[in-house]
Specification:
It is a single chain. The protein is 51% helix and 8% strand. The protein is built from seven helices and four strands; from the N terminus they run E-H-E-H-E-E-H-H-H-H-H. It has a four-stranded mixed beta sheet with strand order 2-1-3-4. Helix 1 links the parallel strand 1 and strand 2. The longest helix has 32 residues. Bound molecules: glutathione (GSH).
């Protein structure tokens, strides 16, 4: 890749980790710029005007342009690599799992992890407390669906790792930090171990 790549991120975020892991697995160097989201550093007028009007990280800076949304940034990095199937159906199937991750998985598992591990239970407001049971139920349903899908296959799409696996791995492998019991999902554990032993794998750090 000829343009300079800068990842605007928060190290403890799984959404940011997805982008770092994608870059690591395909061997693309990415400069990192850290923001403290707990201090509102992605909500400043400068950040909103220049980096992402949606006030969130990750954002991948490519030359003088910006790509918010983790899965879009992963797709930009991996375009043309082995992480994106060339078969048309498999490509769409990969996107299916990436959209599913953003709708059924991340809003439940990542949000509970954020509330429990980063915000702290005692700091939650009433509305957040009320949502915890439904997010726990939906998070377990997502993990159960993944476990069932992986019962007779090694990867989410086709017979090789793709962005679908990377995007789902990011918050699944830290779901225990949100008090999910991953031992209930043995196929998910086997799948995670495959990723963690791959050449180029990097841990999340935070
Ligand atoms: N759908 C977005 C979600 C981005 C997101 O929620 N980012 C969080 C950290 S994981 C954030 O920036 N929070 C800070 C804030 O909302 O002020 C993606 O996949 O990139």
């Amino acid at each position: 890749m000829s343009e300079q790549l800068v990842l605007h991120e928060y190290a403890a975020s799984g959404n940011c980790y997805k982008v770092r892991l994608t870059a690591a697995l395909i061997g693309v160097p990415v400069e990192r710029r850290e923001y403290d989201i707990m201090k509102g550093e992605t909500r400043t007028p400068e950040f909103l005007a220049k980096v992402n009007a949606n006030g969130r990280i990750p954002v991948l800076e490519v030359g003088d342009r910006f790509i918010p949304e983790s899965n879009a940034a992963c797709h930009y990095l991996a375009d043309g690599s082995k992480l994106i199937p060339t078969d048309r159906f498999e490509h769409a199937d990969m996107l299916r799992w990436m959209f599913w991750e953003q709708y059924n998985h991340e809003p439940n598992i990542a949000t509970l992890r954020f509330w429990i591990r980063l915000v702290g239970l005692e700091q939650l407001n009433e509305a957040q407390r009320l949502q915890m049971a439904s997010k726990r139920q939906a998070g377990n349903a997502a993990l159960a669906l993944m476990d069932s899908h992986l019962k007779e296959r090694d990867w989410f799409v086709g017979d090789a790792i793709s962005l679908a696996d990377i995007c789902l791995f990011a918050y699944t492998h830290v779901a225990d930090e949100a008090d999910f019991d991953l031992e209930l999902y043995p196929n998910v554990i086997r799948w995670m171990e495959q990723i963690m032993t791959m050449d180029g794998y990097i841990p999340m750090e935070a």
